Amino acid sequence: MIAAISGRSLAAAARRAGLRPLVADLFNDSDTLRLAERAIRLPGSLQTGIEADGIVDRLAELVGNDDPQAVIYGSGFERTPDMIDAIARRFFVAGNNARTIRAVKDPLSLADLCASLSIPHPEISGVRPDDLEGWLMKLAGGAGGSHVAHPGGGAEKPDHYFQRFVEGRNISALFIADGKEARLIGFSRQWSAPSQNSPYRYGGAVRLLRYSKRKQHRIGEWLTALTARTGLVGLCAADFIDGPAGLWLIEINPRPGATLDIFDSEETPLLRQHLNAIRGAVVKRPAYAGSSASAIAYTSHPIQVFPPIEWPEMTADHQIPGSVLDAGDPVCTVFANARSAATAERAVKNRIKGLSVHWKEGSP
Which Pfam families match (predicted)? Predict the structure, then answer.
């Protein structure tokens, strides 16, 4: 059983792993419905996450008379991790418990952990700095980059904190943890798709063919130290800034994340490896040839009636015809494969430009 803000990528990974997914998410888009054995919509929003009230009853409704192997959760639970422990009282949860989620997702907790383990981490503050120059404002437990902003005047927002800006490239490490040790799966480079209100909104990611061996070794040591201290298990991701001042750990995502699509493998399905790690079985690392990229296409303007589109291959998470969209809403996810990371990134961005003519402002 899959529970997430968007369950499509996890449902696809479950199918590649030979599993039959039951999906509970906020969208129930056409791709998710095609992949799922059954699916239900959860209450909540992209801004607030999944609503906690009644979550266990909703999942029980989805299960019916079936007996699922496990619940695998995606994004949407970081701000209210108690939901995970509530679900675990009814079902086997293949993932991190609320204690571990708090340890790595609470900004002050992560900062203290990094300091104790000598892992570089940007300075944070729970109160508004006197001088806002060089600071970012973030939502505790937020995901996807849309919650990151340049702080302005006015009152402090609840559940927000301030983090020093660090210059450099966004690098993400996908890894599998077993509660004691972290095993690196691979690295990706991420980019933003800025909007007027979300300058750091997630745009996409490309799987890297090469990354410094020295940096890989250092990151592996850091993630193993964090795993041993917090008990991380399963597929997780760590986001770094790699810049002039060196490597800085920005955050840990204690669950399968946005890069699952570009790292999953038919030969070595990652969701199967996720379950193996949690059950103490042998974990295999997929072998990769070439590079893959994925990116989100957003609409820059409101759409009163989303048009029917004959979606090409290498796209997913399609908006349903007739949907009403606000400016900045996601339209679909686009993929590309190539021999190099640079070519894959260029290809996926060009595909988005080509597709966007179907929903450009003023089009029928």
Answer: ATP-grasp_3
Cα–Cα dist 314/259, whole Å: 15
Of 65, 94, 123, the position where a domain reaches its end is 94
Check residue 65 and report its DSSP letter.
Answer: T
Q: State the Cα–Cα distance between residues 35 and 33, nearest whole angstrom.
A: 6
pLDDT of residue 362: 56
CB contact burial 131-155 (16+ within 10 A = b; e otherwise): eeeebbbbbbbbbbbbbbbebeeee
Query: The domain spanning residue 79 has which CATH number?
Result: 3.40.50.20
Per DSSP, 42 falls in state: P
Quick one: pLDDT at residue 79?
87
Same domain, 295 and 273: no
Which parts of the chain have pLDDT scores under 50?
364
Strand 202-207 relative to strand 330-338, pairing: unpaired
pLDDT at 17: 97
Bridge partner residues of 315 (DSSP):
334
Domain that holds residue 83: 2-94
User: Angle, to 10 degrees, between the axis of helix 213-230 and the axis of helix 107-116?
Assistant: 110
From the CB of residue 363, how many other CB atoms can be counted at a distance below 10 Å? 10
Neighbouring-strand partners of residue 173: 187, 238
**Strands, E, within the chain: which ranges?**
2-3, 22-25, 38-41, 44-45, 49-50, 72-73, 124-125, 135-139, 160-164, 169-178, 182-192, 202-207, 233-243, 246-253, 291-298, 315-316, 330-338
CA distance 240 to 136: 15
- Please report the pLDDT score of residue 157 as a whole number: 75
Identify the pLDDT of residue 363: 54
122 and 164 Cβ atoms separated by less than 8 Å: yes
The pLDDT value recorded for residue 153 is: 61
